[in-house]
C-alpha cells in the first residue's frame, strides 16, 4: 500500500507540473496567434496601399506620400514579429527559422505534443511565382500541347489547344494543384512608322483588331495618335483599356481578362504598324512584330500568365507539344519565391505583383494561425484531462492510504489484544502469595 501511495504521489506531482507546462504553452501559443493577427492586419494595410499604387502610378512615376506610408507600414510589419518575446525568447513569435517544438503534456517521458512553427518574417513569407515570357505573335497563336504541374504533394496535366488564349490557359492552371492561382492579361504596345503612312509615297493603314468575339476595323491610320483615337472610341466594344502617352508617343492596349488580340490588314501598308507583347514580368518584347504578315491572314498576340502559390511547384512539357517552352521559355521550370520584403512599387506592374505576393503571405499567416488554434484546442483538452486524472489520482491515493491505515490499525489492535491476553494469562498463572 505504501508503494502504491508513493507511486500515486509521484504521478500526482508529475501531473501538476504537466498541467502547468500545458497552461504555459497555451499562453505562448495565444501570444503567437495574436502576433500573427497583428502581422496580418499590417499586410492587409500594405495591400490597400498597393491597390492605391495600381490606380495612381503612371509609367515610372512614384507617388511620394504613398511611398512613405508604405515604408512606414513595412517597418512596423518587420518590427512586429522580431520584438515579440515570451519568457525572453523572441523565437516564440515565429521570428526565427521554421522549427518544430515539443511541449511536455504528461507526467511521463515522451508524452509531448509537437507544434511546427513557420517563419513569418517579411523576408521569408510571400509567393512562389512563375512568369510567362513574351510570346511572339504568329498566324496561329500557341501550338497545341500540354503542361505537367507538380507541387504541394500533387501532380496534374493541363491540355493546351492550338490558339488558346492566356485567359483559357490560366483558367485551366488555376487550382490544378492545391494552392496554385493563375492570372492572365494581354498587353500590346503599338508603333506606327509615319514615314510609310504619310507623304507622297505614304499609304494609310487599314487594319482590323479582334478581341475575343468582338472585331473592329480601323481605317486610314497614319500615325500612332490616329490609331489611339480610334481605339479609344471602340475600347468599350472590344473590352480593352487604351493608354496613349502623347509625350513619349507610346500606345498601349490591354485586355485585363487575357483574351487573344488578332490583327488583319490590307495587303498594302501593313508593315508600317508593329506590335510588342508584354511578358509576365512587365517587360515588352525587345523587337516589334510588323503586321505585314496579317495581309495574308491573321496575326495573333497571346497574353501573359502569372502563377502564384504559397508552396513551391514546377512546370514541364507534357507528353504532347512544347507548351511550357513556348509560354515560359524552358522545357522545365521551377517556381521562385518573391518575399514580402522584396516587393516594390516603382511602377503599376510591380505594385500589382506585390498584391499577389501579399495575398499569398496572408494565406500563409492564416494557415499558421489555424494550426495554432487547433493546437490550442488540443492543449486545452489535454489540460482538462490532466486535471481530471490528477483528481482521480488524489482520490485513489487517499483510498489506498485509508485502506493501508485501516489495515495497520487493525493489526495494531490485534497485537494489543494479544498482548493484553498474554499479560492476563501470565497474571492468572501466578500462585497466590
Automatic annotation (TrEMBL):
What GO molecular function terms would the record report? Answer: structural molecule activity
Q: Where is the signal peptide?
A: none
Q: Which positions fall inside the Flagellin C-terminal domain?
A: 356-426
* GO CC, alphabetical: bacterial-type flagellum; extracellular region
One Pfam family linked to the record: Flagellin_IN
**Compartments reported by the entry:** Bacterial flagellum; Secreted
Q: Keywords in UniProt for this one? A: Bacterial flagellum, Cell projection, Cilium, Flagellum, Secreted
Q: Where is it chiefly localized?
A: other
InterPro entries, per database record: Flagellin, Flagellin_C, Flagellin_C_sub2, Flagellin_hook_IN_motif
Family assignment from sequence similarity: Belongs to the bacterial flagellin family.
PANTHER family the record matches:
FLAGELLIN (PTHR42792)
Name of protein? Flagellin
Q: Which organism is it from?
A: Pseudomonas fluorescens
Q: Which gene encodes it?
A: fliC
Amino acid at each position: 500500500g505504501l508503494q502504491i501511495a508513493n507511486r500515486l504521489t509521484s504521478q500526482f506531482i508529475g501531473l501538476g507540473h504537466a498541467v502547468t507546462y500545458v497552461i504555459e504553452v497555451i499562453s505562448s501559443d495565444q501570444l503567437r496567434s495574436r502576433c500573427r493577427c497583428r502581422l496580418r492586419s499590417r499586410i492587409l494595410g500594405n495591400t490597400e496601399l498597393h491597390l492605391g499604387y495600381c490606380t495612381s502610378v503612371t509609367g515610372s512615376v512614384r507617388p511620394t506620400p504613398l511611398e512613405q506610408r508604405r515604408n512606414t507600414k513595412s517597418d512596423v510589419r518587420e518590427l512586429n514579429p522580431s520584438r515579440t518575446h515570451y519568457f525572453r525568447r523572441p523565437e516564440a513569435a515565429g521570428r526565427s527559422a521554421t522549427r518544430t517544438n515539443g511541449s511536455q503534456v504528461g507526467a511521463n517521458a515522451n508524452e509531448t505534443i509537437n507544434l511546427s512553427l513557420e517563419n513569418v518574417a517579411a523576408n521569408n513569407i510571400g509567393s512562389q511565382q512563375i512568369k510567362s515570357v513574351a510570346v511572339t505573335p504568329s498566324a496561329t497563336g500557341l501550338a497545341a500541347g500540354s503542361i505537367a504541374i507538380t507541387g504541394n504533394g500533387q501532380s496534374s496535366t493541363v491540355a493546351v489547344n492550338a490558339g488558346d488564349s492566356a485567359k483559357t490557359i490560366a483558367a485551366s492552371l488555376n487550382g490544378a494543384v492545391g494552392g496554385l492561382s493563375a492570372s492572365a492579361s494581354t498587353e500590346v504596345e503599338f508603333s506606327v512608322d509615319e514615314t510609310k503612312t504619310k507623304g507622297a509615297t505614304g499609304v494609310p493603314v487599314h487594319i482590323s483588331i479582334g478581341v475575343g468575339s468582338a472585331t473592329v476595323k480601323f481605317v486610314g491610320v497614319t500615325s500612332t495618335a490616329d490609331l489611339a483615337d480610334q481605339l479609344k472610341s471602340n475600347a468599350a466594344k472590344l473590352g480593352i483599356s487604351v493608354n496613349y502617352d502623347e509625350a513619349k508617343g507610346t500606345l498601349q492596349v490591354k485586355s485585363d481578362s487575357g483574351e487573344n488580340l488578332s490583327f488583319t490588314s490590307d495587303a498594302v501598308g501593313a508593315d508600317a504598324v508593329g506590335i510588342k507583347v508584354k511578358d509576365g514580368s512587365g517587360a515588352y518584347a525587345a523587337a516589334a512584330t510588323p503586321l505585314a504578315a496579317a495581309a495574308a491572314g491573321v496575326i495573333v498576340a497571346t497574353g501573359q500568365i502569372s502563377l502564384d502559390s504559397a508552396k513551391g511547384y514546377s512546370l514541364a512539357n507534357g507528353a504532347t507539344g512544347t507548351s511550357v517552352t513556348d509560354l515560359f521559355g524552358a522545357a522545365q521550370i521551377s517556381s521562385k519565391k518573391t518575399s514580402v520584403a522584396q516587393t516594390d512599387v516603382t511602377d503599376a506592374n510591380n505594385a500589382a505583383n506585390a498584391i499577389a505576393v501579399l495575398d499569398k503571405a496572408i494565406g500563409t499567416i492564416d494557415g499558421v494561425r489555424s494550426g495554432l488554434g487547433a493546437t490550442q484546442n488540443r492543449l486545452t483538452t489535454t489540460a482538462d484531462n490532466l486535471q481530471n486524472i490528477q483528481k482521480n489520482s488524489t482520490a485513489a491515493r487517499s483510498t489506498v492510504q485509508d485502506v493501508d491505515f485501516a489495515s495497520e490499525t487493525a493489526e495494531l489492535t490485534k497485537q494489543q489484544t494479544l498482548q493484553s491476553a498474554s499479560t492476563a494469562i501470565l497474571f492468572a498463572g501466578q500462585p497466590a502469595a
